[in-house]
Structure formats: C-alpha cells, structure tokens
Amino acid sequence: MQLSKADLLRAYRMMKTIREFEERLHVEFATGEIPGFVHLYAGEEASATGFCMHLDGRDKIASTHRGHGHSIAKGCDVDAMMAEIYGKKAGLCGGKGGSMHIADLDKGMLGANGIVGGGPPLICGAGLAAKVLKTGGVAIAFVGDGGFNQGTTAESLNLASVWRLPCLFVVENNGYAEATSSKYSVSCDDFTDRAAAYSMPGIAVDGHDFFAVYEAAGEAIKRARSGGGPSLIEVKLNRYYGHFEGDAQTYRGVDEVKNIRATKDCLMLFRKRVEGAKLVDAAELNKIDADVLAQIENAVKKAKAAPKPTAADLMTDVYVSY
C-alpha cells in the first residue's frame, strides 16, 4: 500500500503524540495530582496508528484499560483527554471517567474499558449496526494478551464469524497479562492459531514496524468493508512501562526495556526507514517533535488550571435520551 509524504508525516505525528502524551503522564502521575489508575501505552504506538490511519467517521473502535493511544489515533482531542485524566470538567467525559474510561462517541471511540475483554462484545454490536445499515463501516476491538483469554472475546469471535460481521479483533501482545508472561498463560505459540476455530483469517505482525502493521490492517479492513467478514490479528510488541504506574516490574528481565528501546522502538525504526529512503527530511520530523512537545505542555497546563466538576454535575449523564 503506497503512502504519500503527507501520510508519512501524519503517521509520525500520530505516533509521536501518543509517545509524548504517555511519557508526560508518567512524570505527572508521580506528583500525585492525577486521580485513579493510569496504564501507559508507550512503546505500542505503531499498532494504534497503523490501524486507525485506515479508519474514517463510519468506523468504531473499542479499547482496553490501556486506551490513550487508541483514543489519540482515532482522533480524540488531546486537551480534552488530558483534562479527563486530571478529573476536570473540561474532560471528554466531564472528568467522570478518568484514564480508564475515556470515550468519544462522536469520534467512533466507544471507550477505554476497565473490564478485561469488555470491548469485543461492543464491537460485535457496532459491526452488526454497520452491516444492517449498510454504512460500509468496520469495527475494531483492541485487546491485550490477557483479554484474549476471556470468554467474552471467544464468544465475540464466534458471533462475528457466524454473522459475518465487519469486525477486526486486534490482540496487542506485549508479552504480559499484568505480570504473567503470555508464554505461560496462553496455550498456543501464536495467538492467530485460534483463528481457524472461528473460520477467519489469522495474521501475526511485528508491532514495532509501523509499515507491517499498516499493510496488515489495510488488507483486513478492506476485506471487512467488502463483506468478507472478521479477522484476527496479533500484533507482537512491547510496553515500556509497568502494567500500571507504580508497578515495580520485578517480573521483567534486567535491562529488558532498555534493550527494547534501543533496538526495537517504533519511532526510531520509522525515522530510520523514511530518512534512509529520502522520503522525509529529518528537519521535518524534528519540527513535528517540537510541535508535539509544545502541544502536550499546553494540554497539561490547561488541564491543571481547569475547574473540577461541581456537586451539580454529580447526577448528570446518568441516563441517555434517544
């Protein structure tokens, strides 16, 4: 799939925005100003970006507790996301959801989810709506290697196949379900081995390589849009921080993350490839770096200064009127 220079710059900006958003949250969470739990997506940026660059307003995604990257890739406002994480009224959900429950239905982001395996059933509903209404839309459930073992995911894979829904089930295998290695907790070497049981294609890709993810995503999304049904895609990648902020990560090897950052970082590999092929100048990417840092700094300042929800906001957003 051919990518224009504008596409390459957009992809880099998206990945860089996710990275700097998460790196800054790592610093800010340590101050004690952010309420609730935070689970960072740093290191996994090529996955969210590679898939969401193919999507448009017809399409829906559902995320996990590690949902900031998917939200940004699907077009959620960075300022409103930061305000939400700080529990402020200007947040995407009025400061009521926080890090694990960011959602923006107008953008097709059905929500991060504190329930492991909670996203796949939602995506079956979104896929069914797209099929019945003939919108041409697709629905994507992002799950982790832990969520892949949940019964909700198995049921959703089966239902999507039986009803031939335009759905993708993307397993972001970062190697650990919380602190348990996927080599111990998953019965097959490749998660895609399970695809045959549901009569759907299973594709495994290197999640450190944006271009590999982008190509696999494009083929599966094209298939879903044309009525070909669901696909299961395993993205093999790594997270740079613990399962949650404060995780001591005693289950990881010595210098494991340091070595991954040095040899497999998706942003580093992207830059090497596009600069080496003379597709994009280093100066253009450096400009994006500076712009993104300024954007994140501004988002943090605005979030800290924003007002909190009031007592009058407590009972709002309880019911939805149709």
Tell me about the biggest sheet?
5 strands, parallel
The gyration radius over C-alpha positions equals 19 Å
- Percent of residues in helices comes to 40-55%
Total number of β-strand segments? 7
- Give the DSSP E fraction (strand runs of 2 or more residues): 5-15%
What does this structure look like?
The chain has helices at residues 5-29, 45-52, 68-73, 78-85, 119-133, 151-162, 182-185, 210-225, 256-264, 266-276, 282-305; strands at 60-62, 139-144, 167-173, 176-177, 180-181, 202-206, 231-236. Helix 1 (5-29) packs antiparallel against helix 10 and helix 2 (45-52) runs parallel beside helix 8 (210-225). The strands form 2 sheets. It has a 5-stranded parallel sheet with strand order 1-2-3-7-6, with helices on both faces. The protein is of the alpha/beta class and 322 residues long. It has one domain (5-313): Rossmann fold. Strand 6, helix 8 and strand 7 (231-236) form a beta-alpha-beta unit.
Relevant terms:
322 residues, alpha/beta, Rossmann fold, 7 strands, 43% helix
Structure described in brief:
The chain has about 325 residues and is an alpha/beta fold.
What secondary-structure arrangement, pairings included, does this model have?
Layout: H1 5-29, H2 45-52, E1 60-62, H3 68-73, H4 78-85, H5 119-133, E2 139-144, H6 151-162, E3 167-173, E4 176-177, E5 180-181, H7 182-185, E6 202-206, H8 210-225, E7 231-236, H9 256-264, H10 266-276, H11 282-305
Parallel strand pairs: 1-2, 2-3, 3-7, 6-7
Antiparallel strand pairs: 4-5
Helix pairs in contact: 1-2, 1-10, 1-11, 2-8, 4-11, 5-6
